[in-house]
Amino acid sequence: MPTHAPVHVLGLGKTYGKVVALDGISFTIDEGSVLGVLGHNGAGKTSLIDILTTGARPTSGAATICGWDVVRFPHHVRRSIGVAGQFATVDEELTGRAQLVLLARLYGAGRRAARDRADELIDAFGLADAARRKVRTYSGGMRRKLDLAAGLVARPPVLFLDEPTTGLDPVSRNVLWEIVTDLAHQGTAVLLTTQYLDEADVLADTLIVLARGRVVAEGRPADLKRSLGNRTVAIRFPSLTASEYAAQCVASHGFRPVRDSGEPLLRIPVSGTGDIASLVRTLDGSGVDVGDLTVSEPTLDDVYLALHGAGDHPG
Amino acid sequence: MSRHAAPVRGPRPDITTSPTTPIRRSPPAAHREHWGVSGFGTQLWVLALRSIRTAFGHYRLIFLGILQPVVIMLLFSQAFAGVSELPGVASYGSYINYLLPATLVTIAVITAMSSGAALMFEITSGFVGRLRTMPISLFAVLLARSISDTLRLVVQLAAAMVVAVLVLDFRSTSWVASVAACALTAAVGWGMSWVFIAIATWRPSQEVMQAASFVVIFPLMFTTSAYMPVESMPGWMEAVATVNPLTYAIDAVRALTVGDPYGTDLAAALALLCCAALIGILTAAHGIRRTR
Ligand SMILES: Nc1ncnc2c1ncn2[C@@H]1O[C@H](COP(=O)(O)OP(=O)(O)OP(=O)(O)O)[C@@H](O)[C@H]1O
Ligand SMILES: [Mg+2]
């Protein structure tokens, strides 16, 4: 029997009238792996999730979830997915617990199993204090947590999270990260959009960066960072004269130091370990005093800014 | 995790042969208990129970829900007192006998309208959006709403009857007739709720929803014998009244409560209500499934 990738997307396109939300997206998510989707506001992240969760129809291309086409077999797709959308979808008039029980019952759980599942999720998300209050009285972050719990009720094999940690406090964010990592270990395929690059770095096995509905970069976080090439060496000197002298020295050896206005600090982009060694030798040879030297890896922020920064950011 | 049968291949591009064969790790424990689906009956039951809990879950809501028919009843009995002089009304004994059925039907229509408003709130608040991502029948969502709101209506009708009997001196021929009148009114509420549910599923804005509701309500209510005998209306209104389902419903309820023959009115009312409900159901079932 053929095994189907949990999520498979080919040439997916979506237009709303004249607005092109998605323009030929393709990717696959395997069992147990997490795909991070990055992109500016309006890049098409939510549109992508809407289509994959059967809430909207693609205008071109196709997508399957566990082998089921999202357009032709929406009901089968819905059996396999859990969703926490960008905007909380909670029922104001029920208590948090009653809501989770209700959803579990709708997924086919018996009364007992539904209650157990609700309590399990309430514990996992630290909602115990609020569980028996009406959702109407919840804070923004509490709603979000309840919504995330709601997406997990059925233990779906495929999980879609649209900016899941927006509005969560740091502790809750860590809790969610752990939950997602655990689920992935157990085999869940996860698609997660985020504006937080550290989150993408921690959680995602693979990243795609969307801009205006197109994939402009994709790969493992580490590869994306490496593709950007440069690490940066930051050197602090005892005085401005020292830093000025050092700048001239290293510049004459082909480096491109960036001065920090007012501070005796130089930032020097380097491409490999060899570069660092030769930089240190140059400084040593010039006889200037070096106060403090740090080497920093490129962050996903650098990647993101490099992709979107070059006049590519739509207004 | 449950594996489904291979999907049927169709004219779409064949994308099931993925280039990356997924590596299956040790049995995905997380999904072993994956439940899958519930039956239509369970969905209906769970969702209806939820709406009923919401409707009766707070003393303020219960109080207001019961106050509303009582206020309508008291207000109408005072405001339209002069009408009792008119010849068409005199034959009913007292004006309350003429008015009560109209009041009951008014209550039914208002409750039906609130059904649509409640559904619309659930659509805009995103709760229906969550249900959309689940393997359940969206029709069950609508049916549950119409059923629970009809139950709420029954409670309201009972309250209205109690007030009519205790305060306004309403006397029916028999209590069986009164119960039958309430049942017919509940049927009116159920049929009409589908009209408003259908409007709500087409996701109008709040303003459009309100405007549409009033466009439906006012012509329906005022071209009936609800408050005035049809004979006292201008000719064109009389013509409209004779094709309005609510006229038959009101006349049938009226005939039931005073012990007149009600056969044809009842049949016409039920037939027209079924038509309204059917059109509403079909429109709503289509509207709720619509995707962007
Ligand atoms: N229902 C709709 N009707 C018309 N245009 C839409 C609709 N939904 C989305 N769009 C447009 O499609 C584009 C992509 O929107 P989308 O919500 O997918 O962006 P996003 O990446 O999720 O942005 P954000 O980071 O702000 O959540 C935007 O230009 C948006 O205006
Ligand atoms: Mg979005």
TrEMBL record, chain A:
Its main location: membrane. The keyword Transmembrane does not apply. Residues 7-237 form the ABC transporter domain. GO terms for biological process: daunorubicin transport; doxorubicin transport; response to antibiotic. Keywords: Antibiotic resistance, ATP-binding, Cell membrane, Membrane, Nucleotide-binding, Translocase, Transport. One of its GO terms (molecular function) is ATP binding. It is found in: Cell membrane. Gene3D superfamilies: P-loop containing nucleotide triphosphate hydrolases. One of its GO terms (cellular component) is plasma membrane. It is a peripheral membrane protein. Belongs to the ABC transporter superfamily. Drug exporter-1 (DrugE1) (TC 3.A.1.105) family. This is ABC-2 type transport system ATP-binding protein. It comes from Haloechinothrix alba. The lineage of its organism: Bacteria, Bacillati, Actinomycetota, Actinomycetes, Pseudonocardiales.
From TrEMBL, chain B:
It comes from Haloechinothrix alba. It is found in: Cell membrane; Membrane. Belongs to the ABC-2 integral membrane protein family. Coiled coil: none annotated. Residues 13-28 have a biased composition (Low complexity). GO terms for biological process: response to antibiotic. It is a multi-pass membrane protein. Keywords: Antibiotic resistance, Cell membrane, Membrane, Transmembrane, Transmembrane helix, Transport. Residues 60-291 form the ABC transmembrane type-2 domain. InterPro entries: ABC2_TM, ABC2_TM_bact-type, ABC_2_transport, Nod_factor_ABC_transporter. It holds the Pfam family ABC2_membrane. This is Transport permease protein.
